[in-house]
Amino acid sequence: MNDILSLSKARKKKTRAEKEKSAEQNRVKFGRTKAEKKLASAKRKKTSDNLSAHKRDN
Question: What span, in angstroms and rounded, lies between the C-alpha atoms of 17 and 30?
Fold first, then answer.
């Protein structure tokens, strides 16, 4: 004889699995590592500093 299966628990388990799958896809699609974020921030700061260093006074 098979075990008793709670349909509500099975339904909840299925939705959790689907949400986790979509979350994983979003992490791959939109996520950046901390190192990538830090590098982009450093590049922006360097560009900004370089631009402000070359401004002429009126």
Answer: 20
Q: How far apart are CA 21 and CA 18, in angstroms?
A: 5
pTM > 0.70: yes or no: no
Token digits of residue 11: 């339904």
List pLDDT tens digits, range 1-58.
678 889 999 999 999 999 999 999 998 888 988 999 999 999 999 999 999 998 887 7
Per-residue CA distances from 8 to 3, 4, 16, 24 (Å): 15, 12, 12, 24
Sequence spans of domains, the chain: 27-52
